[in-house]
Design goal:
Oligomer: single chain
Radius of gyration: 10 Å
Low-confidence stretches: none
Shape: elongated
Enzyme class: transferase
Number of helices: 2
Strand content: 15-25%
Keywords: Kinase, Transferase
EC number: 2.7.2.2
Structural class: alpha+beta
Number of domains: 1
Helix content: 25-40%
Protein name: Carbamate kinase
Largest sheet: 2 strands, antiparallel
GO molecular function: carbamate kinase activity
Distance between the termini: 10 Å
């Protein structure tokens, strides 16, 4: 729903333990519209 509501946005799926690495693009899954 978030990505549909904000087409310019991205959603990151990762664990809380790896959140910092996810924000750096090192881990996790990024969903774009």
């Amino acid at each position: 729903e978030y990505v549909e509501a904000y087409p310019q946005g991205r959603a990151l799926i990762t664990s809380l333990e790896k959140a910092a690495a996810g924000l750096r693009g090192e881990t996790g899954t990024i969903i774009t519209a």
